[in-house]
Design goal:
It is built from eight helices and seven strands. The protein has helices at about 20-30, 45-55, 65-80, 100-110, 130-145, 165-170, 180-190, 210-230, and strands at about 5-15, 35-40, 55-60, 85-90, 115-120, 160, 195. Strand 2 (about 35-40), helix 2 and strand 3 (about 55-60) form a beta-alpha-beta unit. The radius of gyration is 16 Å and the shape is globular.
């Protein structure tokens, strides 16, 4: 795909030495005109070395900030360096970089400010635990009601944002549960969003930080955070 705009692929990574190199290489294969930025979120393994060896720009955070802090650092880098589009891709290998052109195309054709790659539209074969499916279904209903449009995959971390959204996220970006909370923020700030179907794989290496025992607790905390977000005041 010929990239006309300046695109940065942001890859937040915490102890992903087993997968991050392959992710960067795949980004370089399918988007040779884009830059890959690995935000090393205080890893204790060889994540930064693997990322750099694969051709990524590496931004090393001094300690672990979590996905919200890592992504906001990436958005700040994108804004300061003049990128037109920022794409979020997980460092664990679940997101297939060959799907990124689909996000970029939708961002342009749908005339929206952010596009979410949804696992639940179309013929995706991705399977998760029943508890996670229940949680995502609840989040979907709540978020859709708040933003007044159907959002099928509010927890997806596979996204593309335009320059307008990059600028917003450099100033305001949720830290606790950024994927669903960011949708509320976008709605409140008047930004437009859309979804496209994507295929998603299971992790290449490592383990998810959200275990079965934490699922119910996570679900309650996210819902509380979303409702609090509805009443937060921001200066846009």
């Amino acid at each position: 795909m010929a990239i006309e705009k300046k695109v940065l692929v942001i890859i937040p990574a915490y102890n992903e030495e087993g997968a991050v190199g392959k992710v960067v290489e795949s980004v370089k294969t399918y988007l040779p005109g884009a830059d890959a930025l690995v935000v090393n979120d205080g890893s204790s393994d060889r994540t930064p070395e693997k990322a750099e060896a694969s051709g990524a720009i590496v931004l090393n955070l001094p300690f672990n900030l979590g996905i919200g802090g890592a992504m906001q650092s990436g958005y700040k880098y994108a804004f300061e360096k003049g990128y037109d589009v920022a794409v979020q891709v997980d460092g664990d290998g679940q997101h297939d970089p060959k799907e990124i052109p689909k996000l970029l195309k939708a961002l342009e054709e749908k005339e929206v400010d952010m596009v979410i790659g949804s696992r639940f539209i179309g013929d995706s074969e991705f399977k998760s635990s029943m508890m996670r499916r229940v949680g995502i279904s609840i989040f979907s209903k709540v978020i859709s009601l708040i933003v007044r449009q159907k959002i099928t995959d509010p927890t997806s971390g596979f996204r593309a944002a335009n320059r307008k959204t990059i600028q917003l996220f450099t100033i305001h970006y949720p830290q606790d549960y950024p994927e669903p909370e960011a949708l509320v923020l976008l709605h409140k700030s008047g930004h437009k969003m859309g979804e496209v179907p994507i295929m998603m794989s299971h992790r290449v290496a490592g383990e998810s930080s959200i275990t079965k025992l934490k699922s119910v607790y996570y679900m309650v905390k996210v819902l509380l955070a979303i409702f609090v977000d509805c009443f937060k005041k921001h200066s846009f």
